Amino acid sequence: GITLEIMTLQPKCEDVETAEGVAITVTGVAQVKVMTERELLGYACEQFLGKSVVEIKSVILQTLEGHLRAILGTLTVEQIYQDRDKFASLVREVAAPDVGRMGIEILSFTIKDVYDKVEYLSSLGKTQTAAVQRDADIGVAEAERDAGIREAECKKEMMDVKFVADTKMADSKRELEMQKASFNQEVNTKKAEAQLAYELQAAKEQQKIRLEEIEIEVVQRKKQITIEEKEIDRTEKELIATVKRPAEAEAYKMQQLAEGQKMKKVLTAQAEAEKIRCIGEAEATSIEAVGKAEAEKMRLKAEAYQQYGEAAKTALVLEALPKIAGKVAAPLSKTNEIVILSGDGSRVTGEINRLLAELPVSVNALTGVDLMKVRVLLVLMAS
């Protein structure tokens, strides 16, 4: 049940990445207790009623560790390591409102230990020590340099004539500078080696983290593929039920309709063909009857011509002559007058007589009828 005694908790956050990405482990000690104020005590009863002391400690511990982990991600290793009291105070200030709403008061919170697995803190201490040593060496060298310069100046003022001594002093100064440069180079080399070792270790840790992330992604992808396969099966069944079956029914319907239309067209075409055949037979019968009538007519004409002989032929020619004359004279019907140019009137008369004399010959050549014989026949018939 709920206890009013002080509870000691030891929050611990392992391998939490700081703002610079360095994984560190932080342990602490917290003293907490249930508030005795009536309202706050009611909060505690509401939150922890029916829970054992161990369960209450577990809830408070998880809350503190959550805030501790969140704050670690916003600070650098130097800030956490160099000012632990400030870091602990920050955790206490951030966590106090949350635990206060549970009726719990944080009496104290201190950082017990800070360490890492990549020896970053150890490297940080070595770097600071090297920096202090470097500054001390630089100070000594500068002091010696200043003393040498002053001594050289004094000797130069006192012994201007001693050129050899001045040369040796210049050599000493140059040697001093060379030693200083050599020392600085060695210090920078050590710093670079330490930085390179840290970066190499950090890269290895990042690689491990990335491999774990890839494994997680592979597992997630496999799960996603399984879900997608199930969704494909479900979609396929749904399509069969909602699309394929209705489509097959519609296709069967369209096939029956097409066969009906096809049968209709066949029957229509057969009826049309029968109609055309009947019309053709009727037209053929009509043409045959007309042809037979025409043939009978021609046969009767031939028999009549044969019976009457030359007289029938002559009668036909005489019947046709007016029509022939009409066709020949048709172009002359549009002529107002014909003028025959000749200086001799008797000659004109001769030309007309010649044309009239040649007319029977032309008719005989065209029709085979001799107009002279016809003339005689007509005279005889008249008498």
Any chance you could write out the topology, listing elements then pairs?
Elements lengths: L6 E3 L2 E6 L5 E12 L3 H11 L4 H20 L4 H6 L1 H17 L3 E13 L3 H39 L4 H146 L1 H20 L15 H23 L3 H12 L1
Antiparallel strand pairs: 1-3, 2-3, 3-4
Helix pairs in contact: 2-4, 5-6, 6-7
Short synopsis of the structure:
InterPro entries: Band_7, Band_7/SPFH_dom_sf, Flotillin_C, Flotillin_fam. With about 375 residues, this protein is α+β, with helices and mostly antiparallel strands.
- How much helix is in the residues? over 70%
With helices defined by DSSP (H or I, 4 residues minimum), what is the helix count?
9
For the secondary structure, the number of strands is 4
Largest sheet: 4 strands, antiparallel
Sheet/helix structural class:
alpha+beta
Uncertain runs are none
What is the succession of H and E elements? Answer: EEEHHHHEHHHHH
InterPro entries: Band_7 (IPR001107), Band_7/SPFH_dom_sf (IPR036013), Flotillin_C (IPR031905), Flotillin_fam (IPR027705)
Subunit structure: Heterooligomeric complex.
Coiled coil: 173-238
GO molecular function: protease binding
